[in-house]
Amino acid sequence: MTVEREELRRLVDELPENELNAARRYLEFIRDVGKDPVRFALENAMLDDEPETDEERERAERADEDFMAGRTTSMDELKRELGL
Questions:
Q1: Alpha carbon distance 70, 1 (integer Å)
Q2: What pLDDT, in 10s, does the model give residues 47-60?
Q3: Where are the alpha helices (DSSP H) in 1-84?
Q4: Cβ contacts of residue 32 below 8 Å, gap of 6+?
Q5: Which of 8, 6, 3 is CA-nearest to residue 27?
Q6: Half-sphere exposure (CA, 13 Å, Cβ side) for 19?
Q7: ∠ CA(66), CA(60), CA(69), 5° rounding?
Q8: Would you state the pLDDT for residue 1?
Q9: Number of CB atoms found within 10 A of residue 23's CB
């Protein structure tokens, strides 16, 4: 057993109980990140390979303005509108 593994075990032992699930999920993520080719492709994909259009930029600016002005829709309201 290497020093690094011993140190990781010590750190896990020191974690509060309510953080163990998060630690497990993170360690599984690190372990599995290279195994799934789709996941690897998604995580390494460029955010967008097309230039933003003027219309997209204007819509994003309006959305930011609406959000900052409090013109938003609650999750409950959205669910009602969508019939969920």
A1: 56
A2: 877 888 999 999 99
A3: 3-14, 20-32, 37-44, 54-68, 75-82
A4: 39
A5: 8
A6: 7
A7: 15
A8: 58
A9: 13
